[in-house]
Amino acid sequence: MPPVVLILPAVVYTVAAIAAGLTLGVPVALGVFAAAAAIHAIVLAVRLAGALDHAVRAQAQIRRELGLAREEARSILEAIESAARTRPDLGHVMNEVRVLQGLVEKLSGQPVPKPGAPAKSDTAYADAQVLEIVRDALRENRVELYVQPIVDLPQRRRRHFECFSRMRAPDGNVIGPERYLPLAEQVGLVTAIDNMLLFRCVQLVRRMQRTNAGAGIFVNISEHTLADTRFFAEFVTFMAQNADLAHNLVFELAEGHARRLSEIQWAELDRLGSLGFRFSMDQVSDMRFDPHALAKRNFRFVKIDARKVVGYANGATGAEFLRMRTQMMEARVALVVEKIESEAELVEVLDLEADYGQGFLFGEPKPLKEEK
User: Fold this and answer.
1) What's the whole-model pTM score?
2) Which contacts (CB < 8 Å, 24+ apart) does range 176-184 have?
3) How confident is the model at residue 114 (pLDDT cuts 50, 70, 90)?
4) How large is the angle between the packed helices 229-240 and 190-211, nearest 10 degrees?
5) pLDDT tens digits, residue range 290-324?
């Protein structure tokens, strides 16, 4: 508010106070003193308001500049990540930029999310809310597709991608599978989620065949989906009608789930394999698998956690690992080492002559851009 607007009423009050003082016999000086005190208080309030307004404007300017710096840091990091695929020596620069990015985001008051983590903490939602978000996401097609690159080693070229599902809440926040899957399992929604994810992956493969025909899309098939014999039989029939996708679509099964499959379930998987679809076994904890037996069922990839495989190769089981690795090469089953998060881990993995690598070092899961 302009100072004149505030002072004019005080002047009026001063004249009125003097007039009232004369009428009541109060000394004029006392009325003038009271009015002057009021004017002084108003002037001080105006100055304080101006100072506060200046501070607010300065804070807003700082936030805008920090926002620009945050976006620039992200752009620089993406550019360095892209260059690092052919320049391994840029790894330390990339780590320094990540630190800078985190500092800028902290200063800007923005939370620094972990790679692939929801923007809002999952604990902010009660279980009932999460289930309702999942149901709404399925009804309203808000099941989002995230993809993470799988690179060849040692070149680090992006060869394949793994797909993950995320649930978009009405407030815009994303809920990850570590939060919603246990709840979805309790109420029988996992098959519906898998169905939506598989459908979205089929759409993605159709798109990629036009631009990156050699890339494979890895998609997980849960134990619940495999247990739903009617749905899975219908799914296999659907894939038989889309056999041209076989070169690009890779179905993932957890090792523990694969060991519990019934003959009927294996028969359906064999149908997929006979159509040319390939499989990948992940979450491997027992290194004593038979690569030749897997190859006969068209398993062409085995994914092992970086720490597990390095410990297995460098420990007392090193000779056994070498035999297993030789058998994998003979059977043409590729070794994919996942959860590689640092250059130091990558060095150890390269010593094992792994075929592919996956992890935050090469790229975190990111939402798939919708086709325009």
Assistant:
1) 0.66
2) 176/116, 176/117, 176/118, 176/122, 178/122, 179/118, 179/122, 179/125, 179/130, 180/130, 180/131, 180/133, 180/134, 183/127, 183/130, 183/131, 183/134, 184/131, 184/134
3) very low
4) 10
5) 999 999 999 999 999 999 999 989 887 888 899 99
Amino acid at 367: P
Mean pLDDT of all residues in the chain? Answer: 78
Contact call for residues 279 and 250 (beta carbons, < 8 A): yes
Which domains can be identified in the chain, with CATH numbers? 3-107 (no CATH), 122-367 (3.20.20.450)
Identify the residue whose tokens are 């002057």. Answer: 36
Beta bridge partners of 253: 281
Local confidence band at 123 (pLDDT 50, 70, 90 cut-offs): low
All residues at 6 or more sequence positions from 22 whose CB lies less than 8 Å from its CB, including other chains = 28
Cα–Cα distance, 19 to 28 (Å, whole number): 8
Do the bridges between strand 334-338 and strand 299-305 make them parallel or antiparallel, or are there none, so unpaired?
parallel
Token pair listed for 267: 């028969």
Return the sign of the alpha-carbon dihedral for residues 321, 325, 330, 333: positive
Q: 10 Å Cβ neighbour count for 356?
A: 20
The tokens of 85 are what?
């695929």
Integer Cα distance of 162 and 153 in angstroms: 17
Closest CA to 175 of 219, 124, 128, 224: 124
**Burial category of 131 from C-beta neighbours within 10 Å (exposed 0-12, middle 13-18, buried 19 and up):** middle
Cβ neighbors of 195 (< 8 A, separation 6 or more) are 225, 231, 235
Q: Kindly give the pairing relationship between strand 143-152 and strand 366-367.
A: antiparallel
Report the C-alpha gap between 286 and 255 in whole angstroms.
8
Per-residue pLDDT, 225: 87
d(CA 211, CA 214): 9
- Name the pairing type of β-strands 158-168 and 174-175: antiparallel
